[in-house]
Amino acid sequence: MRCPLCNSEKFKEYNHQGVVIDFCHNCKGLWFDKAELSLYTSTGEDIPELEKVLSSAKKTEMICPRCPEVHLVEMNYHPDEPLLIDYCQNCHGVFLDKKEIVHLQEIAAKHKLTGIKHVLSKLKDDGFMMIA
Ligand SMILES: [Zn+2]
Ligand SMILES: [Zn+2]
């Protein structure tokens, strides 16, 4: 499997307490399969208000790591937030680059989504160092 952002093959599965995510050792991007991001964020849904944000989604050049030839779309994580994420409309996976995962944590604090604020610390505990 290749990283959708940098195309590196150093895009490896990583198991965190039963949740398998894919981490790129080259660009530090993260791929969450359907229903995985919500396990990290404890929001119940991977993308809150998915239908709203999908209505303004834009096709990217990035190819889904799970679906050959399917392009990811870029869209807001939340309608009220500028954070853009990359999403596969076919398998419903989500790609976040290393800056986006930090931004996600800030959104959590603002909206009091208590689960999300633990995302970064959980990932750090697991050995992911996102920020230079
Ligand atoms: Zn990468
Ligand atoms: Zn896909």
**Separation of the first and last Cα atoms:** 25 Å
Provide the spatial order of strands within the biggest beta sheet. 1-2-3-7-6-5-4
Q: What does the main sheet amount to? A: 7 strands, antiparallel
* Count of discrete domains: 1
Task: Describe the protein's topology.
Layout: E1 11-16, E2 19-24, E3 30-32, H1 37-41, H2 50-54, E4 58-63, E5 71-76, E6 84-87, E7 94-96, H3 98-111, H4 119-125
Antiparallel strand pairs: 1-2, 2-3, 3-7, 4-5, 5-6, 6-7
The protein binds zinc ion (2 copies).
Describe the structure.
The mean pLDDT is 83. The protein is built from four helices and seven strands, in the order βββααββββαα. Strands 1-2-3-7-6-5-4 form a seven-stranded antiparallel β-sheet. The protein has one domain (11-119). Strand 1 and strand 2 form a beta hairpin. 23% of the residues lie in helices and 26% in strands. The protein has 132 residues and is of the alpha+beta class. The structure holds zinc ion (ZN) (2 copies). The site of one zinc ion has 8 residues, from loops.
The gist of it:
It contains four helices and seven strands.
Features of the shown structure:
132 residues; alpha+beta; binds zinc ion; seven-stranded antiparallel β-sheet; 7 strands
